[in-house]
Design a protein that fits this description.
Shape: globular
Distance between the termini: 22 Å
Helix content: 25-40%
Length: 174
């Protein structure tokens, strides 16, 4: 279903995919984890960036990211690793009880840092798990990065499907 791209992105990934859910609490964390494990089990180098509960699902919720500086003086965050998969999450930088009440710009900047300032190394796939909706975060990421595919998670209810249709259109026509 998802093939790596032949041209490598600046992030070091052959393919950059977005996981998106139409509405809240639809199991996108489960889907993202399952997809990362399947990609890795298929012999691919996979990495995942996430704003939610993925660290707990991989058993690395106590990971405290470190940073390293490259030859040009740029700082990069070292991702956690579990089951051979590189993982970076906003969850590594906040307490589990903290609510993230960020407006669009703050969230966009945080996700931008999570994607661009993580030392991913060589990856065949980088899966960026986006929050629900079709707002600032999504538009910024879609317009900035060459996304080679999207996985949309939904439930069969009419309201959820209507949200998913909008999400699909967002990826088709950025």
């Amino acid at each position: 279903l998802m093939e790596p791209c032949t041209a490598r992105s600046a992030l070091g990934a052959d393919a950059l995919h977005a996981a998106h859910e139409g509405t809240q609490d639809l199991g996108d964390d489960d889907g993202a984890v399952a997809l990362l494990i399947l990609l890795d089990d298929g012999g691919n180098q996979a990495g995942g960036g996430k704003t939610g509960a993925v660290p707990k699902m991989f058993g690395v919720e106590d990971y405290v990211p470190d940073a390293e500086r490259d030859e040009e003086g740029h700082d990069f965050i070292i991702p956690s690793q579990s089951l051979g998969i590189k993982i970076m999450s906003i969850g590594f930088f906040i307490r589990p009880t903290d609510a993230l009440m960020w407006r669009g710009g703050m969230a966009v900047n945080a996700l931008h840092q999570l994607i661009h300032q993580t030392r991913w190394g060589k990856l065949d796939y980088l899966l960026v798990d986006l929050p629900p909706g079709t707002g600032d975060i999504h538009l910024s990421i879609i317009n900035e990065l060459k996304i080679s595919g999207a996985v949309i998670v939904s439930t069969p209810q009419q309201v959820a499907v209507a949200d998913v249709v909008r999400g699909v259109e967002m990826f088709r026509h950025p």
